[in-house]
Specification:
alpha+beta; two-stranded antiparallel sheet; 5 strands; Alpha-Beta Plaits; 3-stranded antiparallel sheet
C-alpha cells in the first residue's frame, strides 16, 4: 500500500513533504504533487509535513477523493521526480 496526494494539494503544491521522503517517490505535476505507489514505503514522514493535510494512506483516502489513487499512479509515471523544496504555487 502507498500514500496518496489528494484534492487539498490541487492549486497549492507545497513541497514540504518531498524533503522528508527517504525514497524520493514524489513527482511534480503542473498543479499538484503525486506519489508513485510502487516507490512509496509507507513511512508516513510526509503526512505530518503537509500543511494542507492532503496526504492519506491509500486505505484511508476519503470516499470523495478515491479517484486520486488512480490519478497518483498514472501521473507519477508522466511527471518529473521532485526532491527539493520549491515555492508553492502563487495562489497558495
Amino acid at each position: 500500500m502507498a500514500h496518496i496526494v489528494t484534492q487539498p494539494c490541487v492549486g497549492c503544491r507545497y513541497t514540504d513533504c518531498v524533503v522528508v521522503c527517504p525514497v524520493e517517490c514524489f513527482y511534480e505535476g503542473a498543479d499538484m504533487l503525486y506519489i508513485h505507489p510502487d516507490e512509496c514505503i509507507d513511512c508516513e514522514a510526509c503526512v505530518a509535513e503537509c500543511p494542507v493535510e492532503a496526504i492519506f494512506h491509500e486505505d484511508n483516502v476519503p470516499a470523495d477523493w478515491k479517484s486520486f489513487i488512480e490519478l497518483n499512479a498514472e501521473m507519477a509515471l508522466k511527471s518529473k521526480v521532485i526532491t527539493e523544496k520549491k515555492k508553492p504555487l502563487a495562489d497558495s
